[in-house]
Amino acid sequence: MLEKIKEESIWKRLTETKLPIVLYGMGNGADMIIDVLDSLGVGFSDIFASDEFVRGHSFHGKKVLRYSQICEKYDDFIILMTFAVRDEGTLERVRKMNEEHELLAPTVPIAGKGLFTLGFVSEHEREFDEAYEMLADEKSRKAFIDVLNFKISGKIGYLFDCLTEKSEVYEQILKLTENEIIADLGAYDGDTIREFLEHTNGKYKKIYAFEPDGKNFKKLKEKTEGKENIVYLNAAAWDKDETLFFENKAGRNSRQGASGVQVRAAALDSVTDEVTFIKMDVEGAEAKALMGAENLIKRCRPKLYVCAYHRNEDAFYLPKMIKSFCPDYEIYYRHHPYIPAWESNFYCVCKDGNADE
């Protein structure tokens, strides 16, 4: 695996540069990146935001500027992108900035600990090699290596080079039908349910929608109102039925914590005995959710859509687990338009269809 890595660490680059470092964006992502910079003894010179968000305010003691003001202030500089983006307009804006100045997008863990570095890949080289060999096609293998190089270097060109539109996955890999029994683990506000139904003519047999966050759960029910045969579970997908604590905040990234709101957790195996398609976007609990669906996966061999970016180890641990449940799975890896490497997912289908005859 190491011979496929072409880049040096983003953090090494930042500790060695003589150029001013400017942050693009505010919020939790910027806070996390500043914490890493502080731990490395690296400072930043300024911060800017997209023009529509500049209102004369400050962040971490620095006045928030416009990009044009940064360009006037410095001849050259390194941009650190500190927020996540998926909309086409902002992606194009970022692409243009990257042509004008060096732009890097650090990867900080959504769940778990530790940075994704060349040292991490070296430590787990055998596991990464095994995961790479499990992938079903050359497009998967290219995307896998491109995402590794991005996570180590922060260079966004790697992500642009391996983009796949989600519609291609539905049409060429998952091939959903009008008779799917769907388990949507991490249903958020129903966004992926709407995505599924775009590819099934709005038809399905049944949907099990898991969402642990109370506010998101309310939105989920509101935005799917009127649809039949949806079983709503205000619960986290887990390996067994129990009570967990979740951070007391709404949003797509609501996740388990050491304290907060008590939330029901449930194993998919305890909810249904039949499923044809499982989607997992559970903020770092994908391994737990897979264990909670082990019996269904072994017996029904459903199509799988499993997010692969929340934990550093997800890229090699999750496909190994899936193959251990059912060696017949063909595993595809795709990255969809997003910076950083969120929306990098495993898509799995059995070679001879879904359930055993």
What does this structure look like?
By secondary structure, this protein is α/β, with parallel strands linked by helices. The protein contains 14 helices and 16 strands. The protein has helices at 10-16, 28-40, 67-73, 88-100, 118-123, 125-134, 138-153, 157-161, 166-174, 191-198, 214-223, 286-291, 294-300, 314-325; strands at residues 21-24, 46-48, 58-59, 62-65, 78-81, 102-104, 181-185, 206-210, 230-233, 235-237, 242-246, 261-266, 277-280, 303-307, 329-335, 344-350. The strands form 3 sheets. It has a 7-stranded mixed β-sheet, sandwiched between helices. Strands 3-4-2-1-5-6 form a 6-stranded mixed β-sheet. α6 (125-134) crosses α14. 41% of the residues are buried. The mean pLDDT is 94.
Percent range for helical residues? 25-40%
Q: Name the shape in a single word.
A: globular
Low-confidence stretches: none
Gyration radius (Cα, Å) is 21 Å
Name the beta content range: 15-25%
Total helices: the number is 14
Largest sheet: 7 strands, mixed
Mean pLDDT: 94
The count of DSSP E runs of length 2 or more, i.e. the number of strands, is 16
SSE-based structural type = alpha/beta
What is the chain-wise order of helices and strands? HEHEEEHEHEHHHHHEHEHEEEEEHHEHEE
For the largest sheet, list the strands in their spatial order.
9-8-7-13-14-16-15
Distance between the termini: 39 Å
Tell me the layout of helices and strands:
Blueprint: H1 10-16, E1 21-24, H2 28-40, E2 46-48, E3 58-59, E4 62-65, H3 67-73, E5 78-81, H4 88-100, E6 102-104, H5 118-123, H6 125-134, H7 138-153, H8 157-161, H9 166-174, E7 181-185, H10 191-198, E8 206-210, H11 214-223, E9 230-233, E10 235-237, E11 242-246, E12 261-266, E13 277-280, H12 286-291, H13 294-300, E14 303-307, H14 314-325, E15 329-335, E16 344-350
Parallel strand pairs: 1-2, 1-5, 2-4, 5-6, 7-8, 7-13, 8-9, 10-12, 13-14
Antiparallel strand pairs: 3-4, 11-12, 14-16, 15-16
